[in-house]
Amino acid sequence: MNKFKSLFTSNPNQVITADLLTSAGIIILQLAGIFILSKLLFKFINYLIKNIFEEKKGYDKQTKQRNKTLKTILKSALRYLFYFVVVTTSLQVLGIPTASILAGAGVFGLAVGFGAQSLVEDIITGFFILFENQFGVGDYIKTSGVEGFVTEVGLRTTRIKNFDGDLHIIPNGNIKQVTNLTADLRRVTVDAAIEYEQDIGQAITVLEDLCQEVKLEYSEIISEGPKVLGVQELAASSVNIRVIAMVEAEEAWQLERVMKQKIKERFDEESIGIPYNHLTLVEK
Amino acid sequence: MNKFKSLFTSNPNQVITADLLTSAGIIILQLAGIFILSKLLFKFINYLIKNIFEEKKGYDKQTKQRNKTLKTILKSALRYLFYFVVVTTSLQVLGIPTASILAGAGVFGLAVGFGAQSLVEDIITGFFILFENQFGVGDYIKTSGVEGFVTEVGLRTTRIKNFDGDLHIIPNGNIKQVTNLTADLRRVTVDAAIEYEQDIGQAITVLEDLCQEVKLEYSEIISEGPKVLGVQELAASSVNIRVIAMVEAEEAWQLERVMKQKIKERFDEESIGIPYNHLTLVEK
Amino acid sequence: MNKFKSLFTSNPNQVITADLLTSAGIIILQLAGIFILSKLLFKFINYLIKNIFEEKKGYDKQTKQRNKTLKTILKSALRYLFYFVVVTTSLQVLGIPTASILAGAGVFGLAVGFGAQSLVEDIITGFFILFENQFGVGDYIKTSGVEGFVTEVGLRTTRIKNFDGDLHIIPNGNIKQVTNLTADLRRVTVDAAIEYEQDIGQAITVLEDLCQEVKLEYSEIISEGPKVLGVQELAASSVNIRVIAMVEAEEAWQLERVMKQKIKERFDEESIGIPYNHLTLVEK
Amino acid sequence: MNKFKSLFTSNPNQVITADLLTSAGIIILQLAGIFILSKLLFKFINYLIKNIFEEKKGYDKQTKQRNKTLKTILKSALRYLFYFVVVTTSLQVLGIPTASILAGAGVFGLAVGFGAQSLVEDIITGFFILFENQFGVGDYIKTSGVEGFVTEVGLRTTRIKNFDGDLHIIPNGNIKQVTNLTADLRRVTVDAAIEYEQDIGQAITVLEDLCQEVKLEYSEIISEGPKVLGVQELAASSVNIRVIAMVEAEEAWQLERVMKQKIKERFDEESIGIPYNHLTLVEK
Amino acid sequence: MNKFKSLFTSNPNQVITADLLTSAGIIILQLAGIFILSKLLFKFINYLIKNIFEEKKGYDKQTKQRNKTLKTILKSALRYLFYFVVVTTSLQVLGIPTASILAGAGVFGLAVGFGAQSLVEDIITGFFILFENQFGVGDYIKTSGVEGFVTEVGLRTTRIKNFDGDLHIIPNGNIKQVTNLTADLRRVTVDAAIEYEQDIGQAITVLEDLCQEVKLEYSEIISEGPKVLGVQELAASSVNIRVIAMVEAEEAWQLERVMKQKIKERFDEESIGIPYNHLTLVEK
Amino acid sequence: MNKFKSLFTSNPNQVITADLLTSAGIIILQLAGIFILSKLLFKFINYLIKNIFEEKKGYDKQTKQRNKTLKTILKSALRYLFYFVVVTTSLQVLGIPTASILAGAGVFGLAVGFGAQSLVEDIITGFFILFENQFGVGDYIKTSGVEGFVTEVGLRTTRIKNFDGDLHIIPNGNIKQVTNLTADLRRVTVDAAIEYEQDIGQAITVLEDLCQEVKLEYSEIISEGPKVLGVQELAASSVNIRVIAMVEAEEAWQLERVMKQKIKERFDEESIGIPYNHLTLVEK
Amino acid sequence: MNKFKSLFTSNPNQVITADLLTSAGIIILQLAGIFILSKLLFKFINYLIKNIFEEKKGYDKQTKQRNKTLKTILKSALRYLFYFVVVTTSLQVLGIPTASILAGAGVFGLAVGFGAQSLVEDIITGFFILFENQFGVGDYIKTSGVEGFVTEVGLRTTRIKNFDGDLHIIPNGNIKQVTNLTADLRRVTVDAAIEYEQDIGQAITVLEDLCQEVKLEYSEIISEGPKVLGVQELAASSVNIRVIAMVEAEEAWQLERVMKQKIKERFDEESIGIPYNHLTLVEK
Q: Highest mean pLDDT range out of D126-130, D202-206, F46-50?
C-alpha cells in the first residue's frame, strides 16, 4: 500500500539510491498512467453524454434548451468528480493514506444518494409508464388524487389538465396507481327515481321505450344498450331504477346529460313524478 | 495488491530486468485472463437473457415487442457494467488503487438499488399472486382502494376494469391485501323495512312465501335460500327484516335487484307499507 | 492475496520453475478443493430442500403442486448462486481482484434483500400466529380492516371469508393486530328505547320478565343472563334501557335478532311505544 | 492469510517437505481447535437455552408446549449456524477465500435482520410494559384503537378482552401509547339537560338534593361527590347542568346508569322537562 | 494476522523450537493481557453502573426496585458481552479467523440496534422535555392526541391523567409536539347568541354591564376583562356576541360556567331571548 | 501501514540508525506533503466558494447578506473538516491506528447525513421546479394542501401568498405534486338550478340567450362560450343546468360572479324560480 | 499490524533482546504520543465548547443555566469518548485485535445516531427558519396543525401561543411548512347574505354606501377598500354578496367584527332581511 515503505523494508544490503530511483520511476509511471487513463475516460463519458442528448432529435425548442442545460451540469459534475478521483488515487500511489478523505466523501455521497432516491424512483416509474403503455397523451386518467387529460408524459413528471384548466404536474414516483377512463368503452349509468306509490312495471316500460328511442338517435356513439337493469335500490323516499349504456369514452359525459333530460321530460309526459325527500309526521 | 511493488521489494541481489519481465509477463497473463473470462461471462449472460425471453412463447405481439425492448436495454446495461468491471479489475492488476472509483460507483449503485426497491417488491408480490393463485383473469376483486374485473395479471402490474369501464393499473407492490368477490358463492342480502305499526309475524310469513316463489323461479342460480333471518334492526322509523340467499357470484347483483322489486310488489299487494322517515312533532 | 506475486517475490536465488510448479500445484489443489466442497455443499442443500418439502405430508394436491414449483425455483436459484461463488472464489485463488464484481453483486443483493423484507416479515408474523395460536380455521376475526371466518392460515398469507362470500387474502405482515370474536362467550347487547313519558320502572319490569322467558327458551345456548342493566342513555328522543346476555359466540347474531323481535312484540302487548325522533316546534 | 502461500514464499533454500509438514501440522492443529471450540460453545449455548426455558416453572401446559417448540427451533437454527461458522472458518484456515460466501450470507442475514426488526421492537416494548408496570392483568385499558380488560401481558403480545367478548391480540410494538382507565378513581359525569324556559337555580337545587341522596345510598363506592358543577353549556335546545362524582373505577359504569335514572325520575317528580330538539318555524 | 504462519514463514535456517517457544510466549502474554484488561474494564463498568444508580437517592421504593432490576439486567448483558469480546479476541490472537463469527454478531447487533431505535428516541426526547422545561408535573397539557394533568415526567415515558381519571402513559418519542394549557393566563371565551330581531346595541350594553359585575365579583382570579369584543358571527339563526376574559389557567373552566349561567339569567331578566334554530317554511 | 514497524522488521544485519533516519526523513517528507496539499486544496475550495457566491450578482440586499452568512458558515465548517483530515492522515503516516477515531467521526457524519437528507431533497426538487419550469412567480398554484400566488421560487423553499394575505413558506421537498391554475385558459362553470315543475327547454333557451349577451359584453376576456352544456344533474330538489365558458385564468373568478348575478336577475325577469330544498310531508 | 509478530518474524539470526528492546521502545513512544495527542485534543475541544457557550452573551438567566448544564453533559460525554479512543488505539499499538470491540461500539453508535436523527433535523430546520427569516417573534403563524403568536424561535424548538393562552411547543423538525398570517396586509372578507326575493342591485348599492362609510371611519388601518366584489354564491337559502378590504394584519380580526355589525344594522335600517334556512313543504 505504501511505496516508500517498500523501498526501505526490502533492501537491507544494497545501495539504497538505485532502488529509490527505480521505485520513484514506477510511481511516476503509475501517476502518468492514472492521468492518461482518467483523461481518456473523461473524454469517453463526455462523448457518451453528447451522444445521449443528440439522438433525441424529435424534441421541440424548450426541450433542446433543457437538454443543453442538463448537459452542462452533468459535464461540470463529472469534471469535479474526476478531479477528486485523480487526486485521491495519486495520493494513494504516493503512499499518503486517504481513508479519512474517502470517508468524508462517502458520507457526502450517501446524503446525495439518499436525497436523489426519489429522483431515481421517478425515472424508473416513468420508464415503466412509457414501456408498459399505461396511458398516452390525450387519455383521461385518475391518479394520485387528481384527474384530467394527459398532456405530457415525461421521464420524470407527467402533466395532466382537467376540465377546469388546472394543470397538474406529478412526479412519476407519485403515480403509484393509475385509472385510465378512456382505455375502452365507458358505461353511462342513470338511476331514475320514482315515487313509492308509482307502479314499477309501468315505469320500467316507459324507460325501456325511451331506451329504444335513445338507441336509434345516438346509434353512432352507443355500442350497447341503453337498457333497463331493474330496481337498483328501495331508497328512503324513492324507488331507483337503473338504466345503463356502453358508449365511446369521450361521449359518455354528454350522453349522460342527454339521458337525464330525456328521462325527466318523458316522466313529465307520462305523469311519473320524481319524488322529493319524504317525511312522515306524527303529531303528539 | 501491487505488482510493481513486489518487483522491487523482493529481489535485492538479482538482475532486476529478468524479474521485471517475468512479473510483467504474469500481469499480461492475468489481464488476458480477465479479458477472456469477462468475454465468456458476457456471452453466457447474453445467452441467458436470450433464453429467458424466448421460452415465453405464448405471449402476443405487444408483449413480444416489449420483451425485445427489455432485452436491448438489459444487454446495453450489461455491456457498460462489464466495461466497468474489466477496467477496474485491470487497474487493480496494474497496481493502481481503485478504492475511490469503487466508492463512487457504490454510491451510484446504492441510489439505483434504493430506487429500484419498489420494482423488486412489485415483482416478488407478483410472483406470489401467480404462485398462490390469489385471483385470476375474470375474477371480480377489491384491492388498494379500487374494485373491478381482473383483465391482466402481470409480473409487475395487475389491470382491473370496473363496471363503468375504468381501467385500473396497479403495481403489484400496492396489492397488499386482496378481496376476491367471485372466489365462491355470494350471499344476497335484502333488508325489508316495515312500519312499526305492522305485525312482524305477518310480514315474515309474506316474505317466507315470497322466498319459496323466488327459490323455484331462480333455482338454477340459487344454491341455498332465500330464507328469512328475522328482525335485523329496530331502526329509527322502521323494523328491518333480513332475507338472504346464496347464489353464483356472477348472478348476485341481478338477483338482488329482482328480490327488491318482488318484495316491493308483494308488500303493495299485501298492503304492507315501506315507511318513510318518521318525526314526532311536539307543539309548544 | 495473490499467488503469482508470491512466486516471484519470495524466491530470489532459486530456479524459478520449480517454485512456479509447486505454487501452481497448490493453486490447482485449492481450485479442486473449491469444486469438490461446493459440489458437496450443493448436494447437501439440495438434500435439505428435498427433506423440508417432503416432511410436510398432510397437505393436499394444490399444496403439493405449489411445493414442487417452489422446490424447482429454489434449486435453480441455488445453482446460479453456487456458480457465482465458485467462479469468484476461483478468481481470487488465481490472484485476479474480484472487489468490483463482489460490489456489484452486493448492490444487487441489497436491492433484492430490501425488496424481500416484507416477505420475511410475512413469514415471521405467520410463524407467531401459528405458534401463539392467535386464531384458527373457523374463527371469526377482525384484522387489517376486514372481518370474517378464517378459512386458511398459511405461513405467508391468511384467508378470511365474510358472510357475503368475499374472500380476503391478507399477507401475514399486514396482520398487525387481531380481534378474535369467537375466542370465548360473546355478549349480546340490546338497547330498548322507550318514550320519555313512559314510566322507567314499568319498562324495566316488563324487560326483566321477558329476560326470564328468553332464558328458559334458549337455556342451551345462553351462559349468563339475559338481564336488565339499567338506563344506558337519556337520548335525544328516548330513554334507552340496556339488556345483555352472554352466549356461545356462534349464536350471538341469531339471539340478538330473536331478542329484538321479542322486545318489540312484548312492548306492543304492554302498549309501551318505541319512539320516533322528536322535534319541538316553536311558532314565531 | 494463506497458509500454503506461506509455505512456499518463505523457505527458499530449505527442504520443502519438512516445512510443508510442520505448516500442515499447524493447520491441522487449528482445524482441530476450531472443531473443539465450536463443539464446546455449541454445548454451552444449548445449556443456556435449556436453562432459560427451565427456570420459568410457573407456566401452564400450553406455555410449556410452546417453550418446547421454541427450544427445538432455536437449537435447530443454532446447529445450522454453527455448521456455517465452522465450515467458513476452516476454509479460511485452508487458504480458500470466503469473501463471496460471507457476502451472500450477509445479505441473507440483513434481510432476516430487517424482517425481525418488529419482533425485536415487540420484545423491547413488552419488557418496558412489564418493567414500568404500565398495566396489569385485569386493568381496563385503551390502546392502539381498541379497549377492554387485559387478560394476558406477554413479552411479544398483549391480549385484551372487551365487554362484548372480542379478544384483541396486540403485538407489544403496536402499543405506542396506553390509557389505563382503572389506574385510579374514575369520574362519573352526567350532564342534565333542562329547558331554556326552566329556572336554572331551581334545577340546580333539585340536583344538589339528589346528589346528597345518592351520596348516602352509594357511600361505600363513592369517594367524592356527587356534586353539581354548574352550567356546562348553553346548548342549541337545552341548558346542560353538569353533575360529577369520583368513584372506584370498576363501579363507574353502573353508577352512571343509576344517576341517569334517578335524575330522570326526580325531574319527572319536580316537573322539570328534559327537552327535545327545538326548531323555530318562520312562516313566509 | 496469524502468529503460527509467522513462525514458519520467517525462520528458514534456524532451529524451529526456540522461535516457536518465544512466539508462543508472546501469544500467552497477549492472551493474559486480554484477560486482565477485560477484567479491569468489566469491573470499571460495573462500578460505573453502581454509581449511576446510586446517586439518584431521592426516588421512592418502586423506583429503587426498578433500578435494582435494571442494574441486574445491565450487568448480566455486560457479562455476556465481555465473554464474547474476550473469546473472539483470543481466537484472533491464536490465528483463527473470526470474520464469520463477527459478521453473525453484527447482524444480530444491527437487528437489536434498529429495534432499540425508538427507545433511544424516547430517551433523547425525554431529556429535552426536562432540559427545556417544556412542562412539569401538575401542568395541563395536550399531546399525541390526549390531554390531562401531567403526573410524572420520566426519561422514557410521561404520564398524564385527565379529568375522567384516565391515566395516559406516553413514550416520550411520541411527544412530537406539546400544548401546555397552564403555562400562562388563559382566555375564557363565551359567545352569547341573540335573536336577529334583537337590537345588537342593547345586547352589548347588557353584556358590558354584566362584565363589570363579574369583574368585581371574581377580581381575585381575573387578570383582564371580561369585556365585549363585538359581533363575532352572523350565524344561521342568531347573532353571536363574543365576551372574553383573561384568568388564572386553573380557574378558566369554572369561570366559563359562571359566565354562561350569568348571561342566561341576565338575558332572561332583560327579555333577550337565546334563539333556537330557525327554519323559514315556504308552502307550495 | 506502519513505518516504525517496517524499520525494524526488515533490517536485521544493518546499522539501525541509518535506516531509521532515512525512514524518518520519508515520514517527514510525507507529513510535509500532506500539509502543503491540504493547504492548496483548502485555498482552492475557498476560491470555489467565493466564485459560486459571487457570480449570482442579480440578487437583492437580503440575498447578499444571506450569501455572506452562508459563505462564513461553509468556510468555518471546511476549516474544521480540513483540520480533522490533516490530523488523522498524519497519525496514519506516524503509524498510530486511527480506526476508532474514523469510526466515531463516521457515526457523527452519518447522523448529520441522515438529518441533512431532507435538505438535499429540497434542493434537488427545487432544481427541477426551476429546470422544468413547473411554475413561476405570479402563477396561482395549489400544492401541499395550500394554494395562492407564487411570490418566490427559491432553491430550498417556495413562498405562496393566498387571497387572504397568508404567506405559505413551503420547503421544496414538500412540493411532491403541483397544480398550476394559471397555466392556460380556465373554465368558468355555473350550475343554474331550476324547479322540477319548470320546463327544461324554456330554461335552456333563456340561458342560451343570456350566454350570447355575456359573450358580447365580455368578448375581450372570453375565449370560448359561454354555452349551455345541458342537464347536469336531477338533484334532490332541483334540475341543474350547466353553463361553461373558457376565459383568461385571471378573469375566471370575476366572470363567475358576474354570470351568477346575471342568471339570478334573468331568471327573476322570466319568472323562473331558483328552488329551495323541498320536503314532502306525509301526515299520519 | 502487530508489533510482537514483527519482532520475531524478521530477526532470525540476531540477538533477540536488542530488537525486542528497540521495538518495545517504539511502542512506548507511540503510546506516549497517543496519550499526549489525545490530551491536547481533549483540551482543544473543551476550549471550543467553552468558546461556543460563552460568546452567546445576550441570553437570560434560564438560558445561561441551560447552557451550563449542556456544557457539563457535553464535557462528560467527551471524556468517556476519549477514554474509549485512547484505550482501543493503545490496544491496537500493543497488537491486540480490537475488531470485536469496535464492532460493538459501532452498533451502539449507530443506534444513538439513528435516535439522534430527529434532533439533527430539528437543528438544521431551526437554522433555516432563522437564516431565511421565515417568521419572527410576534408573528401570527400556522404550522404543524396549530396556530398562534410566535413567542420564541429556538434552534431546536419554536414556541407559539394562541389567543386562548395555549402554549404550543413544536420541535423545528415538525415545522415542515409554515403559513405566516402577519407577513403582509390581510384581506377582511365578509359575505352578506340576502333573501332570494331581495333585489340584488339595491343590496349592492347599500353595501357600497356602507363601504364608503367604513373607509372614512377606519382610514388609518385600511389600505384598500372595503369594496363590493359581487355575487359570490347563489346559496341554498340566500344570495351571498362578498365585501372585502385590505388592512394591517393585526387589525383584521377587529375590522371583521365591526363590518359584520354594521352590515346587520344597515340591513335592518333598509329592511333587507338576512334569511334563515328555507324549506319548501310539499303536502301530499
A: D202-206
Residue A12 predicted with pLDDT over 50: no
Residue that is written with C-alpha cell 539510491 in the block: A17
The answer as to whether A240 is a domain residue is yes
Average pLDDT, chain B: 81
C-beta of residue D153 within 8 angstroms of C-beta of residue D129:
yes
Neighboring chain F residues of A164 at a CB cutoff of 8 Å: 186-187, 189
Tell me if A84 and B100 make a contact (CB, 8 A cut-off).
yes
Q: For position F188, what pLDDT does the model report? A: 94
Q: How many CB atoms lie within 10 A of CB B135?
A: 25
* Residue B167 with chain A: CB contacts under 8 Å: 179-181, 183-184
Which residue in C34, C108, C172, C231 has the most chain D C-beta atoms within 10 A of its own C-beta, making it the best mutation to test that interface? C231
Residue D278 lies in a domain: no
- Calculate helix-pair angle for C117-131, B117-131, nearest 10 degrees: 50
Share of chain B above pLDDT 90, in %: 42
> Chain A partners of F98 at a C-beta cutoff of 8 Å?
99-100
What CATH number is attached to the domain comprising C142?
Answer: 2.30.30.60
Assess contact for A124 and B116: CB atoms under 8 A: yes
Question: Which of F:37-96 have CB within 8 Å of A?
Answer: 37, 41, 81, 84-85, 88-89, 92-93
Q: Under a CB-based contact definition with an 8 Å cutoff, are residues G264 and E231 in contact?
A: yes
Number of domains present in the structure of chain G: 3
pLDDT greater than 80 at residue A141 = yes
Q: Does C18 touch chain D (CB under 8 A)?
A: no
Q: Is residue D91 part of a domain?
A: yes
Supply the pLDDT for residue D15.
41
B144 in A contact zone (CB under 8 Å): yes
Same domain, residue pair D31 and D97: yes
C-alpha cell at A124: 424508473
- Look up residue A77 and give its amino acid: A
CB atoms F260 and G233 under 8 Å: yes
pTM > 0.80: yes
Span E227-280, pLDDT tens digits? 999 999 999 999 999 999 999 998 899 999 999 999 999 999 999 988 999 999
**Phi, psi for E179 (deg, rounded to 5):** -120, 115
Q: Looking at the domain assignment, is residue C171 inside a domain? A: yes
Asked if C132 and C175 count as a contact pair (C-beta separation under 8 A), the reply is no
Helix (H) or strand (E) holding B35: helix B16-54
CB atoms E281 and D282 under 8 Å? yes
Residues 157-186 of A with CB under 8 A from B: 176-181, 183-186
For residue D62, what pLDDT is reported? 65
For residue range D26-79, what is the model confidence (pLDDT) as tens digits?
777 777 877 787 777 777 777 777 766 664 555 566 666 767 777 777 777 777
Domain of C84: which CATH number? 1.10.287
| Facing residue for B282 by CB, picked from C1, C118, C281 | C281
Asked if residue A233 and residue A161 are part of one domain, the reply reads no
Chain C residues whose CB is inside 8 A of the B185 CB are 165
Cis peptide before C275 (omega within 30 of 0): no
Of A92-106, B46-60, C258-272, the poorest mean pLDDT is in B46-60
Indicate the range of A228-232, D87-91, G155-159 predicted with least confidence: D87-91
The neighbouring-strand residues paired with C200 are none
Complex prediction ipTM:
0.79
Residue among C222, C194, C216, C210 nearest C263 (CA): C210
Of the candidates A108, A274, A278, the beta carbon closest to that of F282 is on A278
Beta-carbon separation of G165 and E142 below 8 A: no
In DSSP terms, G240 is beta-bridged to G193, G233
Q: Is the CB of G9 inside 8 Å of chain F's CB atoms?
A: yes
Instruction: Tell me: pLDDT of E20 over 70.
Output: no
Q: What is the pLDDT of residues G37-57, one digit of tens each?
A: 777 777 777 777 776 666 555
